[in-house]
Each structure stands twice: as structure tokens, then as C-alpha cells.
Specification:
- With 591 residues, the chain is an alpha+beta fold.
- It has three domains: 6-102, OB fold (Dihydrolipoamide Acetyltransferase, E2P), CATH 2.40.50.140; 137-279 and 431-557 and 565-578, BirA Bifunctional Protein, domain 2 (2-Layer Sandwich); 298-423, GAD-like domain (Gyrase A, domain 2, 2-Layer Sandwich).
- The protein contains 16 helices and 23 strands.
- Strands 6, 9, 10, 11, 12, 18, 21, 22 and 23 form a nine-stranded mixed beta sheet that branches. It has a five-stranded mixed beta barrel with strand order 1-2-3-5-4. A five-stranded antiparallel beta sheet has the order 13-14-17-15-16.
- A hairpin with a 7-residue loop joins β7 (178-181) and β8 (189-192).
- α5 crosses α14.
- The longest helix is centred in the N-terminal third of the chain and has 23 residues, at 134-156.
- It starts with 15 loop residues before the first strand and ends in an 8-residue tail after the last helix.
- It binds one RNA strand of 78 nucleotides through residues 25, 27-34, 36, 43, 45, 47, 49-50, 63-64, 77-78, 80-81, 83, 85-86, 89, 105-110, 112, 114-122, 171, 173-176, 194, 197, 219-225, 227, 352-353, 450-456, 552, 562-564.
RNA sequence: GGGCUCGUAGUGAAGUUGGCCUAUCACGCCUCCCUGUCACGGAGGAGAUCGCCGGUUCGAAUCCGGUCGGGCCCGCCA
């Protein structure tokens, strides 16, 4: 039997075809029945006449989502019967034989894009039904094309795809691991890799010049709208004989730019004159945008006014500055139109980030209106207006606290104001590399030095730098790519020198034994002629989410877990048999 | 672990300053009518202990306490 797809039918007028699919809807006129048949290519109207008695009586019993196979003749519709709203609207299939392949109970979720959409809890529980929706079918297809694009591109650039183990070793320094007990070695555990970090570096030692893999990564950390619980995918890559992060960045930039323009058909903005992706230091990103993953589709930079307000009469600012803090401001174009209650809402957001309040100035009719204006001198007001670039109709909001706190508060407000004023143009993509991350960071809570981002990256300046006095001033040749406010890539030039590695870990309190215990395999390998190398990993689910205008990463995944790490459809995680546990051997202790 | 928020027929919503709620509407479901609809139309019908437990009250979907579940955010994510 020849099988035809719904969308092919239009080109086969006069022919007899057989089509299978689901009943999308049925319109029973008593003496004539229309059925919209749906398959993965679209919808096709079937017409069933009383003349075909068997088919007609069966058609009357069909319900939504019944699975059928029909044979009939493709007929061009009379002009006045054509439906321009559907792709196959100029034809219909006059049914000669109808076969019921399977029935369906009324569905617990909506499977049509039009009209009501079920809540996500139900959509996830009945994901196999939710995936019937044309939007989801589209997503699955696009995602497949996307993966092919990635693989073709990497392969075309001379990268070798290597699969690394899924049963690996625990690395407690990073995210929480998923542990897998070993039956053969009672009491010992594998861990699902958070990333194939060590394996890919070992491939460099092995002499693979350019490695890549679409790698499954596992992390047992609480999810977010842009971060899945459990497992997710990275385009993981590494290049040998690279000592400068620029080499990796320039190698990979074109892929991301192509994805934006050729694959997603969006407009790139914010590029350098020479067409490369802009590079911003971590320090600059934090100071100017209040974030290490700024959305650069809009400007709205943070402006430091501490010097201009050093002698101010306004107590809050004065105390902050005298105490070593900073006063910064952000200009919101058109912000003067904000209502009292809207400002209150933004103030609440500021407070939730740790601000005491939210001072502001509204510029209206040539005047600076503000509850704090009376405390500020003419010259101070002039400096604020000039430095922020505020015009009539704008508003300026202030943050006053330690530098990090102010950056955090104003960075959040920048994000929220952009939402409020619709500054996030979905047709545009702004990319940037955030570079020069601090190698170490001082943790206020534990009062200890810790790695800033990635302990495997090479400190700029090597051994000498690590031994220097001010550890927090050491930079790493480490780079993140940001896309419209999302971190989509993280990478580094790696530390391939055992002595630098030991020293780097010693600074945060790891002795040689502990380093050997944790990363012994890699350190040993580095003793046998490890080439310098660098690489990175792209969060490809997240990129796909941005490229397809989704705000939740679960919407680009076939079978995602919910925010509690539960797969509502499969009901995992679940209890296992005692027999299984005994074999491992593991005992579950509950309170 | 913390903050905010949501939970009402199979589905999506309304009602939430206590009484007019014996809970409203749309889709879906069931019965019947209908030969050109395409979100077909028409007539009728069934379907909800208002997430769960407790409290306040003459009276609770509505107020209070607790609890369970979802979502977003903070922490966390080398």
C-alpha cells in the first residue's frame, strides 16, 4: 500500500491515495460528514458521502484523536469551497474506504495550538499527547535540523566526534553529582558526568587535535526557566596547541553567528567593526551592566556618580560614599511616565535584591522632580543629568551601597525596566564574550578563597601570578559567551602544567594528596607531554530556546522533568525493589 | 533551604471586600436533528465533595492556620 502524507495530497489531484492519521475534528452534517485528518505534515479534509455506506456509518462513529486510514480520490474543491486558512485547503479527499485503526478516549489535555492550552503540569504528564500539537511537532523537527547543523559544521571544521563515558567519577567540587552504585565493587560509586571535562582534556594528551561531542551532562541542582533539572546537552569541544583564548573564540564565533542568521533568521547586532563578537571584561560587565550575562540588545548602562556626589548633603549617599561604597545610577528612557504604583513595584524588586529603597529623579517639563532633589545641590543635579544623559521624559534611578550590591540591584532593575519598556527585540540577537574572569574569588561567608569559575583554567601569568600577593587580582583566560542575556557558552585555556595545577589548588587549601586523589588521572596524564589546549562548551538547549523564542527550556525538550526533578509521565524517580538494593548492596535509611 | 505566586467539572477560565453560589461561561463528552462545513450549526442532557486537613462564623470556593502539588526567583549551578 502506498502511503501518502497530508501535505502531498494537494499535488495529486485525480489520483487515488491512501492517507493515515488522527481525527483532528469531525463535522457531521447528517447526510454528509467532513473529517479533518491530521498527520505530522498538516491537516487534510476528508469528505464522506452516504453512497459509500460502510465508510459513512463508520465515519459517524469517529471521535477526536481516533486513528484512521482512508483511501479515496483527491479532488480539487470548487472555487467557493476552498479554504485559504489551511495549506491543503484547495483540495479534499473523497473517501471510498475508511478503516478504524484505533480508538481514543477523550483527551486529558488540549492537542491543538488554537484555543485553550492546558497547564504545564498536565502537558508534562501527558507529554506524548502534548507533542502531537503542531508547535511541538515543529520544535522536534527544528531541533533535529539544529543538531544536524551543529554536527555538519563541526565536522566540516575538522573536529573529531568522540563519545566519552556516561559512567564516570564523582567530582564533588562542582555541582552535586548523580551517583551510580557499583554492583561489582560494593561500596563504590560511579557518577554521571557534570561535563566530560577531564575526558576531553585527556583526548588532547592523546593527540586528538580537535575534539567535539554533543555531550549529555548531569547535574543535581535546582532548575530555572533556562536550566533543566538533571540532564542536558552541551556542544563540548577542545583544541590542542592553543594558548590564547582568542583562537577558540574566533574558531567558534562563526557557528553561532550562522545559527542566528541562517538557522533562526534573526538579525545580529552589537558586533565589532570587523564583524567579530564584542569582548567585554568581567569587571566591565559587572560595573556597566550589573551582570556577568548582560542583555546587550539595549544599552541602559550603570553610571558611577560616587565622585560627583562625594560632598553631598544627602545623608544616604554621603554615608555610603564615606564608608567606601558607591552611588550609581541608571537612566530609564521614558521613565518619567511611570506611575507611583509602578515605581513601588520596582522598589520592591530592588529591595528583594537587598536594596534599602529606590531613589529616583523624574525629568519632566524641564524640571528634576524627586523626593531627594531638595537634598542635592545644583551642581550635583547637573552632574547627574549630564553623566546619565537624562532628557525630558526620562527617569534616573539610584543605587547606593557596596559596589557589588549596587551592581546587583541596578543590574536586576536594568533587566526589569527593559521588560517593562519592551526593549528586548525578539528579532535581534546581541552576542558578547565575557572575558578575564577572576581566577579566585573571596567568599564572604566562609571567609575563604575559592576558584572563581573553573579550577582547570590557566591563570594569566602562570606560576608567578599565583604566587603573587593579591590573589583576587589574578585573571583567568576564561570566557563565556552571552546571547540576549543568557550565558550560552563557557570555556577556558586550560592549565596543562602539573606544577601550576598543584599551586593553584594549594592556594585554596587543597594539598597535593587531595588533588591527586580527585584529579589524579588527569595530572598523571599531564606529566607525559600534554600539549597546551583550550576549549569550551555551548549549552545547546538554551541556545535553541533563544533562537526559537521560547522562555522556558522545557518547551524545547521532548521529555523534560519538572521543577522538582520529577518526570510526571514516567513517575521517576521511584522506589526500587529490595532485591535490587541488596545486590548493590545498599540500604535505604529513612529517618 | 528561603521569598513571591497559583490550585474551581475531562480542559480552559469567571466568581475570592463571607450570604444574591442550590457555583457561571466556553471547549470537550452523551442523545437527537441537519448534504458543503472547515473553531459547522440547532435542540436537549450528564458532569465539580471549589487541591487536602483543621479552625473562625448562624453561614466559607471566599477569612485564618497547617499541609500537598505546580510555576517564577534567591541560594546553588567549579
Amino acid at each position: 500500500m502506498n502511503r501518502t502524507l497530508a501535505q502531498e495530497v494537494a499535488s495529486r489531484i485525480g489520483e487515488s491515495v491512501t492517507v493515515s492519521g488522527w481525527v483532528n475534528s469531525r463535522r457531521d452534517h447528517g447526510g454528509l460528514i467532513f473529517i479533518d485528518l491530521r498527520d505530522h505534515t498538516g491537516v487534510l479534509q476528508l469528505v464522506v458521502n452516504p453512497e459509500t455506506a460502510d465508510a459513512f456509518s463508520l465515519a459517524g462513529q469517529l471521535r477526536d484523536e481516533f486513528v484512521i486510514r482512508v483511501t479515496g480520490t483527491v479532488k480539487e474543491r470548487d472555487e467557493h469551497l476552498k479554504n485559504p486558512n489551511i495549506a491543503t485547503g484547495s483540495v479534499e479527499l473523497v473517501v471510498e474506504a475508511l478503516q478504524l485503526l484505533n480508538r481514543s478516549e477523550p483527551l486529558p489535555v488540549a492537542v491543538q495550538d488554537e484555543g485553550q492550552q492546558s497547564n504545564e503540569e498536565l502537558r508534562l504528564k501527558y507529554r506524548y499527547l502534548d507533542l502531537r500539537r503542531p508547535k511541538m511537532q515543529d520544535m522536534l523537527k527544528k531541533r533535529s535540523d539544529y543538531y544536524k547543523y551543529l554536527r555538519d559544521w563541526m565536522s566540516g571544521r575538522g573536529f573529531t566526534e568522540v563519545s566519552t563515558p556516561v559512567l564516570a567519577n564523582s567530582s564533588p567540587e562542582g555541582a552535586r553529582d548523580f551517583l551510580v552504585p557499583s554492583r561489582v565493587h560494593p561500596g563504590k560509586f560511579y557518577a554521571l558526568p557534570q561535563a566530560p571535562q577531564q575526558f576531553k582534556q585527556l583526548l588532547m594528551v592523546a593527540g586528538v587535535p580537535k575534539y567535539y561531542q554533543i555531550a549529555t551532562c548531569f547535574r543535581d541542582e535546582d532548575p530555572r526557566a533556562d536550566r533543566l533539572y538533571g540532564d542536558f546537552y552541551q556542544l563540548d569541544l577542545e583544541m590542542a596547541f592553543v594558548e590564547d583564548g582568542n583562537e577558540v573564540r574566533l574558531e567558534m564565533e562563526p557557528l553561532i553567528k550562522e545559527l542566528v542568521t541562517n538557522f533562526a533568521h534573526k538579525e545580529l547586532m552589537n558586533l565589532e567593526q570587523d564583524g567579530t563578537v564584542r569582548r567585554i571584561s568581567y569587571r566591565q560587565a559587572m560595573d556597566e551592566y550589573g551582570s556577568d550575562k548582560p542583555d546587550l540588545r539595549f544599552d541602559m548602562r550603570l553610571v558611577d556618580l560616587s565622585d560627583d556626589l562625594r560632598g553631598t548633603e544627602f545623608g544616604v549617599f554621603k554615608n555610603t560614599i564615606d564608608g567606601g561604597g558607591v552611588v550609581k545610577a541608571i537612566r530609564v528612557e521614558g521613565g518619567a511616565q511611570l506611575s507611583r504604583s509602578q515605581i513601588d513595584a520596582f522598589t520592591e524588586i530592588a529591595k528583594s535584591e537587598g536594596a534599602g529603597g529606590l531613589a529616583y529623579i523624574m525629568y519632566e517639563n524641564g524640571e528634576a522632580k524627586s523626593p531627594i532633589a531638595k537634598f542635592l545641590s545644583e551642581s550635583e543635579l547637573a552632574a547627574i543629568k549630564q553623566k546619565t544623559g537624562a532628557n525630558d521624559g526620562d527617569a534616573v534611578f539610584f543605587g547606593s551601597d557596596t559596589r557589588d550590591k549596587v551592581n546587583k540591584v541596578l543590574g536586576r532593575l536594568r533587566f526589569e525596566f527593559a521588560d517593562h519598556f519592551n526593549l528586548k527585540d525578539p528579532s535581534k540577537v546581541a552576542l558578547a564574550w565575557i572575558v578575564d574572569f577572576p581566577f579566585y574569588e573571596f567568599d564572604e561567608k566562609t571567609q575563604k578563597l575559592d576558584f572563581g569559575h573553573n579550577p582547570f583554567s590557566m591563570p594569566k601569568g602562570g606560576l608567578d601570578a599565583i604566587r603573587s600577593e593579591d590573589k583576587t587580582a589574578i585573571l583567568a583566560d576564561q570566557y563565556d559567551m552571552v546571547m540576549n542575556g543568557y550565558e550560552i557558552c563557557s570555556g577556558a585555556v586550560r592549565n596543562y602544567a602539573p606544577d601550576v595545577m598543584y599551586e593553584a589548588f594549594a592556594t585554596v587549601g587543597y594539598d597535593k594528596e587531595r588533588v591527586d586523589e580527585r584529579f589524579g588521572g588527569m595530572i598523571t596524564a599531564f606529566k607525559y607531554g600534554a600539549p597546551p589546549h583550550a576549549g569550551c562548551a555551548f549549552g545547546i538547549d538554551r541556545i535553541f530556546m533563544v533562537l526559537t523564542d521560547q522562555e522556558n527550556i522545557r518547551d524545547v525538550i521532548a521529555f523534560p522533568k519538572n521543577g522538582s526533578g520529577v518526570d510526571a509521565m514516567m513517575d521517576s524517580p521511584s522506589i526500587v525493589d529490595d532485591a535490587q538494593l541488596r545486590e548493590l548492596p545498599i540500604r535505604v535509611v529513612t529517618e
